Amino acid sequence: MNSWQLVLIVASVALSALAQVLFKFGMQRVTSDGTALNVVTQIIKNPAVVGGFVAYGVSACVWLVVLKRTELSVAYPFVSLGFILTMLAGWLLFAEPVGPLRILGTLFVCVGVVIIAASAR
After folding, report:
1. Chain centre distance of CA 50
2. Residue 103: which residues within 8 A CB-CB, separation 6 or more?
3. What DSSP designation does 34 have?
4. Which of 8, 15, 31, 90 could covalently link to 59 via disulfide, CB atoms 3.0 to 4.6 Å apart?
5. Nearest Cα to 120, choosing from 2, 23, 20?
6. What is the pTM of this model?
7. pLDDT-derived band of residue 121, with 50, 70 and 90 as boundaries?
8. How far is CA 42 from CA 52, 56, 81, in A?
9. If you ran DSSP here, which 8-state letter would residue 98 be given?
10. What is the largest distance, in Å, between two alpha-carbon atoms of the chain?
C-alpha cells in the first residue's frame, strides 16, 4: 500500500466518523413530541443531519477510489479506525464516558489495523 492509498483510506474513514458526529449533534436538537411527520420534517430540515449525509456521500465516493486501488482485505480493516474516531468524538464533544475496557478494546483494534497494514507491504 502506498502513501496515497493510505491518505484516501484515512480520509474516507474520517469523513464517515464526521458524519456520525454530525448525526448525533443534529439528532440532539430533534424533539420527539408531535407526530411522526413532524419528527421527520425536523430531521430533514436539520443542517447537521444533512451535513452528515453529505459527509457520508463524499466518504463513499472516496471509498470507491480506495477499492479500485487497494486490496479489499487490506483496506476494509481500516474502517475500524472509525470506532476510534467516534469514541474520541463522543468523549470530547458529547461528554460520553470512556472506561478502561473501551480504551483497551480500542487499542486492540489499533494493533490489528497496524498488523494488517504491515502485511500489505
Report:
1. 15
2. none
3. S
4. 15
5. 2
6. 0.86
7. low
8. 15, 20, 31
9. -
10. 56
Query: What is the chain's percent helix, strand, coil content, to nearest 5?
Result: 85, 0, 15
Q: Output phi, psi for 34, to 5 deg.
A: 110, -170
**5 contacts 66 by C-beta, under 8 angstroms:** yes
Cβ neighbors of 22 (< 8 A, separation 6 or more) are: 48, 49, 51, 52, 55
Instruction: Name which of 46, 44, 54, 47 is nearest 19 in CA terms.
Output: 54
Cα separation, 77 vs 112, whole angstroms? 8
> Can you read off the three cell numbers belonging to residue 88?
474520541
Q: Cell triple for residue 20?
A: 456520525
C-alpha cell at 15: 469523513
Label residue 34 by pLDDT band (50, 70, 90): confident
39 torsion bin: left (phi>0), alpha (psi -120 to 50), beta (else) = alpha
Task: For residue 29, give the C-alpha cell.
Answer: 436538537
Q: How does DSSP assign 43-95, residue by residue?
A: HHT-HHHHHHHHHHHHHHHHHHHHHHHS-HHHHGGGGGHHHHHHHHHHHHHH-
